[in-house]
Here is the input.
Amino acid sequence: MCKEKEILNVTKEGFTIKSVDLVDIINKFRKEEGGKAELKHSDFMKKIRKELEVLESLGLEGQGNFSSANYRDKQGKTRDCFELNRDGMLQMLNSESTYCRYKTIEYINELENALNNLTKKNYSLRMYNLTRLFLRVYPMEYESIAKEIVEYHANLPKKLRMDKRHKKMDKTEYKQFVRDKLVQALELIQEDIDNKDIVSIRLYAKELIIKLKNGQIETTNRSTAQILSNRERELNRLNPSLKEMYCVQYHPFTWNSAIKNGRRTWAYNNWINNFPADEVPDREMWEIDYGVNFNKPIKIFLRYINMPRFDMDNLSKSFIDMLFNEYRGVYHVDDSIVHALDEKTIGHCDNYEDGRVYFFLQNMSDEEIKNIKC
Here is the structure.
């Protein structure tokens, strides 16, 4: 899986944001406002350099609000950018319209608040932390604490889970894992015979252990952790970058060689049988982390690294069929659900082994659906 984008980087002094990500947000609200051209990242970089020159010539502080950084573009190449703190961001927003400036700051504030909430609510699953959380409250509060912890982790996007193993779990598996950790913590607390309130602790801990093992501690509403996922999802709608897409390390198959005399060719069958389905994110991840509804029209973004002799226009059908096929597809949904395709070849390779397909799914907006019908 390719590394996913994180908009804000939290530091002890606050947060920083890369210029390329700030440009995405600015363009989101420029488009929303209407009447203003899209801001190019190269032009934004020039504005920052000019700002730094002016500050230096005036002998003013402020250069510390900007630092050199880099990012990977859609072709996977490393590009220069700037990293801005809050003051730097505000400096560069001065030239934007009142609407765009206000909406961008509001947007960033929501992201920052969500990140702060994740930091403040220490719901780490480390055993020391769990036992400490329980021992700091009255035994009659154990159940409410357990509910908060289960709810927090159940709604946490997979990319924010701390352990790689946990990121591979679906929501049901991960929720059970959290319950099991709580049970272990409560069992350790029960063994604390030096505690003066041991009878009460054992009573409430035992009752809660039974509920956890029986799956009776359920979530009731979404955690603030989802604000991050939702906000990043909105940016993804503009046009997901390569690092946000999921990478399948498999050369795409040209449809020109797929069917002969009304039957699948040996080469196509071999490609199907060796397709690395384990590299494809499961349906539940799309539903939970990105809000994709598999009962509504879907747009798929495809980026290829393929051998030059294959025409890009013939590469999409075989890959889409491996994802969206009612019988053999990873998501067991008919490919008629795919209403729009955005595809590009981003690089060439010399052999099949180096071929790649990057992809991303999102539901189409009402406006996009309306335009198709028209």
Notes: The first helix runs from residue 19 to 33. The chain has 14 helices and ten strands. Residues 8-119 form one domain.
